[in-house]
Amino acid sequence: MSEVILSVAGLEKSYDDVIAVDGLDFEIEKGECFGLLGPNGAGKSTTLAMLEGMEEPTAGSVRYYGASLPSDYQTRVGIQFQATALQDFLTPFDNLKLFSSFYDDPIPMDQLIEQFRLKDFLHRDSRRLSGGQRQRLLLALALVHNPEIVFLDEPTTGLDPRSRRDLWDVVSDLKADGRTLILTTHYMEEAEVLCDELMILSHGKTLLQGTPEQLITDAGVSDLDTLFLSLTGETLVKTQEVIE
Amino acid sequence: MSAIGRSFRRMKAVFIARNLEYLRDRASFGWNLVFPVLIVFALAVVFSGPPRALFTITTISSDDLPELVEFPGVEAIETDRLKALDRLSRQQTDLVVEVVDGSVNYWVNGNSASGAILELLLTYTETRPLKRGETDGDAIRYVDWVVPGILGMNMMYSALWGVGYVVVRYRQSGYLRRLKATPLTKFEFLSAQVLSRLLVTLTASTIVFVGTNLILDYKMVGSIWLLFLIALMGGLAMITLGLAIACRTESKEFADGLLNAVTFPMLLLSGVWFSLDGSPEWVQMFAQVLPLTHVLEAARAVMLDNAGFADITIHLAVLVGFCIVGMALSIKLFKW
């Protein structure tokens, strides 16, 4: 039986009078790819921020192997934020060197350069990278310390179809390594391809949770998009639409 | 590796990254060096003639001043005796007068022709008993007096904007949030920013100081090491002030406003361009709460009057106070 790495109970987050996350309960098993699915404003990124330890919950708890988050939790997780700027004028090489210096036992830079295919633009000003190159660099920075859990917040938003497929390959490799992945996405196909377990959120609450196949079968629909439409009245983005 | 060793390693990495960013930003790097040089040369050209066209008399607080003070073409400034005689020895004023118990005490600079003319006029126009005093000292050019001001102003802009604005930019772009997700601590991040900007500020000030002095040969009679110490403490005080401003600010526009609100009074009231002697007392008191005032008063004392460490201790102590308060506030209030 798989071990539970993160368990969430009664998780809530409010900003003034806005409730972003409203009482979530779920568990994430070690080594699985857990997807948070939902339209804009569903509470995906806020939930992710609390799982990452970046935000304090208003109520409820996030537990790591059944205990409170340890003080060195940041060294156990790698985070690829939805929108992250890097220091101006620094190259991917400079950034890798900088972020490697934050940790005691980082992955050798050559290995990261190879794994994330950074060689062709290693000494280019980071501001001049394409969307796909930039995402690969950010993922490499998130993985520089060989974390146990990797958080990916809408990793393929804004990427062209080719870059999106490239990133799926990289994420699939991380899964194959046995890492626990937690990702948010707008894209139905991405969720189906990458995730072992899905949670569909709307207005900060859980609408459904299960494997992609389970959710489709139980609802008796043809795909996740149809299911999502029937639940929320909103559609997710189909990758094919983006390609077209 | 020990905790201190790890902390030092992270700080060093951020320090190097910030320096790289600055050095590769050639426009801002160049401007930091070129701008003060241009101002020094422009002022040297504009004020290359005699310091003033009219007579200046400095009065020491007293009633029934001589009629001469009211003469057309005479500018009168009131201050205390110490400052007045200081000004006289630098020939920033032509005559110093004070009325005590019905007699007029006056001082002239033996090297000043204007002082001799005013002395003659005073003896012809004044009926009360006169008591003469004399100082000496060469006239200082405006450029001698203004160079510390320009160096200080450049340091102020470099320190406050180079740290304050950059930290807010990092925050607004999400870069600080990215750093928060690493083991880097607030103290390590802030210390690296302070050290990086201090290096930039001191290097730029040294290059401008040496470069302009080679050509303009302005007055520098004191200890160069003492001047360096003033620059070090002044730079630190203003960098930590910049950090304190930026520690929670999220918008670049608001940071602009705050930084302007801090730099503008210093630009006007710290004695960058002109002396505040003769200005209302409350203005002079207010100027004492500005770090740049202490940098400039200490620097001018060293450069123009050969002041020693003991003479500028109070200024250094105030600057140390600014550093401690600024850094403590920054660490306490800093938000990634």
Descriptive account of the structure:
The complex is a heterodimer of chains A (244) and B (336). In chain A, β1 (4-15) and β2 form a beta hairpin. Chain A is 36% helix and 25% strand. Chain A has helices spanning 44-52, 73-76, 92-100, 109-115, 131-143, 161-176, 188-194, 212-219, 224-232, 239-243; strands spanning 4-15, 18-29, 33-37, 59-64, 77-80, 149-153, 180-185, 197-202, 205-210. Chain A has 244 residues and is α/β, with parallel strands linked by helices. Chain B is an alpha/beta fold and 336 residues long. Chain B has twelve helices and five strands. Chain B is elongated, with a radius of gyration of 24 Å. Chain B starts with a helix and ends with a helix. The mean pLDDT of chain B is 88. The chains are: A alpha/beta (244), B alpha/beta (336). The A-B interface holds A 52, 54, 72, 74-75, 77, 79, 81, 83-90, 94, 97-99, 101-104, 141 and B 1, 6, 9-10, 12-14, 16-18, 20-21, 24-25, 170, 173-175, 177-178, 180-184.
User: Most extensive interface, residues per chain?
Assistant: A-B, 25 and 25 residues
Distance from N terminus to C terminus of chain A (CA atoms, Å) equals 42 Å
- What is the CA-atom radius of gyration of chain A, in angstroms? 18 Å
- Across the major sheet of chain A, the strand order is 5-6-7-3-8-9
- The helical percent of chain A reads 25-40%
Low-confidence stretches of chain A: none
Task: Strand order, main sheet of chain B: write it out.
Answer: 2-1-3-4-5
By secondary-structure content and strand pairing, the structural class of chain B works out as alpha/beta
C-alpha end-to-end distance of chain B: 26 Å
Q: Helical content of chain B, roughly?
A: 55-70%
Mean pLDDT of chain B: 88
For the largest beta-sheet of chain A, the strand count, sense and barrel status come to: 6 strands, mixed
H/E order of the elements of chain B? HHEEHEEHEHHHHHHHH
The secondary-structure class of chain A comes to: alpha/beta
Q: What is the count of helical runs of chain B?
A: 12
In percent terms, what proportion of residues of chain A is strand? 25-35%
**Inertia-based shape of chain A:** globular
Instruction: Give the SSE string of chain A.
Output: EEEHEHEHHHEHEHEEHHH
> Low-confidence stretches of chain B at least 5 residues in length (pLDDT < 50)?
none
Largest sheet of chain B: 5 strands, mixed
